[in-house]
Amino acid sequence: MQNSGMDRNRYILETHNLLKRFGGLVAVNNVSLKVERNKVTMLMGPNGAGKSTFVNVCTGVLKPDGGKVIFDGKDITGYPPHEVYRLGFVRTFQIPEPFMGLTVLENVLVALKNPGEHPLKAPIKMFWIKEEEKNIERAFEILESVGLDNQWDQVASSLGAGQLKMLEVARALATDAKLIALDEPIGGTDPKYAGDILSYIRGLLDKWDVTFLLIEHRIDIALPYADYVYVMDRGTLIAEGLPDEVANNPKVIEVYIGE
Length: 259
Ligand SMILES: Nc1ncnc2c1ncn2[C@@H]1O[C@H](COP(=O)(O)OP(=O)(O)OP(=O)(O)O)[C@@H](O)[C@H]1O
Ligand SMILES: [Mg+2]
Fold this sequence. Notes:
The chain has helices at residues 51-58, 81-87, 104-111, 125-145, 161-174, 191-207, 219-222, 243-247, 250-257, and strands at 11-22, 25-31, 34-36, 40-44, 66-71, 74-75, 89-91, 179-183, 211-216, 228-233, 236-241. It is of the alpha/beta class. It folds into two domains: 1-95 and 175-259, P-loop containing nucleotide triphosphate hydrolases (Rossmann fold, 3-Layer(aba) Sandwich); 98-171, no CATH class. A six-stranded mixed β-sheet has the order 7-8-9-4-10-11, with helices on both faces. The termini are far apart. 37% of the residues are buried.
């Protein structure tokens, strides 16, 4: 499968008949979907639909019982989470290092992928000062694009729920993630701030070579910010399409009215 240069596929993620059972419960039932590069794809559905389980299986947190996960042209089915993360498919909570006691800037700095200390350069201070400067510059660039540059010296624990979500996104960007999966990015945030979060996420597509898979429960707020939408219910994909197609799909309306 092609995965480089001009031939890289249009879809950064594809699943084929992905299957996950918990005992007798089929949490993810033969789900096949595609996530287009440099777009926001939304996976929606009511409580218990299997959205989080789907992402957990894709990112290696859970082992699938069947099907395939293709990321960036590579079959990553059953890869352990750290491998999936290293390849650039990042589920925000996977990013290592605790962070509540650190400042916003420090949080991004620890997430930055460093090429590793060069054994010869390390003892020479000049080199690592240059490296530090570059990192700080890049961290600020990332913070600016998520709207947190003015909070750079605040401790993470002092941020609001929405700002913490954006800090998670900033940290994912710092790892050079190609695909960022966010599980309910607007969950627990003030509905007024929810639109801002989603707008910031959309804005990142122009600046960084990144793709988003957003898991959302709240169809009313989130739908306008998606390029393409999949809807799951009780483990199965019940609809897909452009946001307004999905919003008018009778099966989707029924599932959400039933809530
Ligand atoms: N580790 C587990 N063991 C057993 N059952 C599980 C486990 N994780 C999830 N489930 C079940 O699998 C189904 C799908 O759950 P999942 O958390 O993936 O749904 P969801 O779409 O993310 O829902 P929500 O909107 O509430 O986050 C549910 O019936 C849930 O109870
Ligand atoms: Mg969930």
